Amino acid sequence: xxxxxxxxxxxxxxxxxxxxxxxxxxxxxxxxxxxxxxxxxxxxxxxxxxxxxxxxxxxxxxxxxxxxxxxxxxxxxxxxxxxxxxxxxxxxxxxxxxxxxxxxxxxxxxxxxxxxxxxxxxxxxxxxxxxxxxxxxxxxxxxxxxxxxxxxxxxxxxxxxxxxxxxxxxxxxxxxxxxxxxxxxxxxxxxxxxxxxxxxxxxxxxxxxxxxxxxxxxxxxxxxxx
Length: 226
Ligand code: ATP
Hints:
18% strand
């Protein structure tokens, strides 16, 4: 975009990071930070899902608790924020609705961030082929989901929609948006692992931020029978 003095005006670059965050852990935080830095994002918005379409309801605690833990975890990072957009929307949380919401409400360049495990099953997401004509996507590496031949391979249903752009090292969608695969520090941490440790009464120190640990303790979360 050109400004009125003919100077190049850089649009804001906005990262959308959806997840269940049940609870948020260091893998989420470090991943978002590395992506923010390497893609020069101006902001990364963490968006907890109300009802995640791909997870059993029983194991997911109330969205208010998950949101509060996200808020506590990101409070000292000026580039991070949290949004209730999915929590306030009735019904299941579909990423396509969230991306459309951000496209309608601001003019930033949007980068949707997800892990490799999510991308592997992208063809089960609502309107998955349309997703890539709405914004850019960044797929982060994740331990356990990185078989060598998967690194640059697209799901069958998407191959005809993209071509590989050698110059920028990314896949270009026919709409003009990009799909990036980004290697980040491998942190073999999952919310499942954190929940299991808590249930067993074991330490989760250094896997989640201390404020989140304290919140879980105070609210007696993730104990069997809750
Ligand atoms: P659970 O163990 O309950 O399935 P999770 O740890 O996968 O949860 P989510 O909230 O489902 O956490 O993840 C949100 C997003 O962050 C997903 O796109 C996921 O792939 C990504 N992600 C989570 N943990 C990591 C990690 N350690 N490294 C890279 N990406 C991650």
